[in-house]
Inverse folding.
């Protein structure tokens, strides 16, 4: 066991699925990775990763980039004219949590559409399309699956197809922020190609539920990825011998997807286990993948109290807490986390009852939250 792994045993980190550390298999693959200069497209391990994901998702090509943010923002820049609007669901990561990048890099504006439970209706999307000479033209439709700030909720395949059909009718490109597209596939019981079908571009993170330490892949047509490559260089994302990162990502891609169903089950166990805890309320229907959003009387106090006992999670707003499961949180750790969370809730709020608010995660603290 590495010192890193023993640290993981002591702490239970439910802040995000981005907190995982590379497994021994990933570290071995990294040490042995064949590398080259990726700005010249000469890193064989990166080329293998890009090709593998493109094949799995049904796209012509892929581009390895350092982060989901860069991947999404390159997509916006390639698809859109400056001054155009991007239609996206309320709470969309591309707008809320990619610090204004859409204005800075692509020079585009968000047009937010209501998305109860993270799912926009095709009618709302249609109503958001701008055609007038007096308005900023619509340049892109973007969906998010799973939808992080709505609770890790899943957009059904039928809804994606309806919105894609609308995009075709309107001659608009359509992008998927699929940071957790594999979680969506798991929750929907379909393969990753089904989640990605019908989009002009998809961004997939290897460094979230799949467990890689770094990296995302942007997918699209050969022509689209050619243009994206130039933007990656412009943004300083040409990482040269980054095959060491792609090697870990390839291991994550081999092993990660199979583990997601356990993450989802454990999120459910956490959610159900917290029902009835003093001062805590939650909407079980929003627990659809590896996230649990909770409403509590004082999110910071509870997070700090549990954190002192080794159970870490994020207070996303004054009364909102998010728990995220990942492959380095097992059944025992879920049990231990529940015990600590219950004890601290009892200490803080015994006799208080459930927290007052029953709003959905997406309704809570939108725009005020500092952590996605
Ligand atoms: C839905 C979604 N998209 C994109 C990102 C951005 O990924 P990164 O943190 O790698 O920039 C995140 C990060 O959590 C996310 O949740």
């Amino acid at each position: 066991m590495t010192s890193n792994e023993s640290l993981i045993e002591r702490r239970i980190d439910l802040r995000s699925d981005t907190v995982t550390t590379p497994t021994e298999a990933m570290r071995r693959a990294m040490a042995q990775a064949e590398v080259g200069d990726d700005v010249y497209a000469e890193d064989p391990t990166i080329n293998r990763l890009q090709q593998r994901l493109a094949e799995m998702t049904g796209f012509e090509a892929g581009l390895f980039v350092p982060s989901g943010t860069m991947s999404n923002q390159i997509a916006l820049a390639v698809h859109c004219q400056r001054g155009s609007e991007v239609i996206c669901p309320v709470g969309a990561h591309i707008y809320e949590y990619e610090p204004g990048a859409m204005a800075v890099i692509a020079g585009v504006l968000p047009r937010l559409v209501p998305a109860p439970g993270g799912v926009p209706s095709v009618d709302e999307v249609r109503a958001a399309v701008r055609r007038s000479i007096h308005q900023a033209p619509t340049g892109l439709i973007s969906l998010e699956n799973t939808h992080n700030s709505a609770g890790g909720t899943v957009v059904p395949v039928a809804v994606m197809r309806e919105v894609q059909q609308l995009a075709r009718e309107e001659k608009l490109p359509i992008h998927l922020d699929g940071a957790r597209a594999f979680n969506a596939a798991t929750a929907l019981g379909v393969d990753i190609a089904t989640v990605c079908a019908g989009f002009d571009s998809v961004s997939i993170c290897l460094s979230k539920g799949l467990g890689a330490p770094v990296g995302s892949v942007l997918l699209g047509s050969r022509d689209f990825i050619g243009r994206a490559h130039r933007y990656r260089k412009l943004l300083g994302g040409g990482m040269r011998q980054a095959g060491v990162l792609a090697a870990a990502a390839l291991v994550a891609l081999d092993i990660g997807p199979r583990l997601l169903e356990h993450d989802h089950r454990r999120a459910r166990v956490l959610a159900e286990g917290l029902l009835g805890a003093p001062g805590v309320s939650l909407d079980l229907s929003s627990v659809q993948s590896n996230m649990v959003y909770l409403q509590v009387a004082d999110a910071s106090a509870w997070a700090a109290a549990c954190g002192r006992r080794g159970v870490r999670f994020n207070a996303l707003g004054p009364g909102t807490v998010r728990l995220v499961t990942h492959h380095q949180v097992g059944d025992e750790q879920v049990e231990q986390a529940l015990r600590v969370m219950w004890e601290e809730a009892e200490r803080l709020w015994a006799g208080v009852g459930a927290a007052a608010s029953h709003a959905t995660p997406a309704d809570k603290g939108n725009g005020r939250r500092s952590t996605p």
Observations:
- The longest helix spans residues 243-274.
- The two ends are 32 Å apart (CA to CA).
- The CA atoms of residues 83 and 129 lie 14 Å apart.
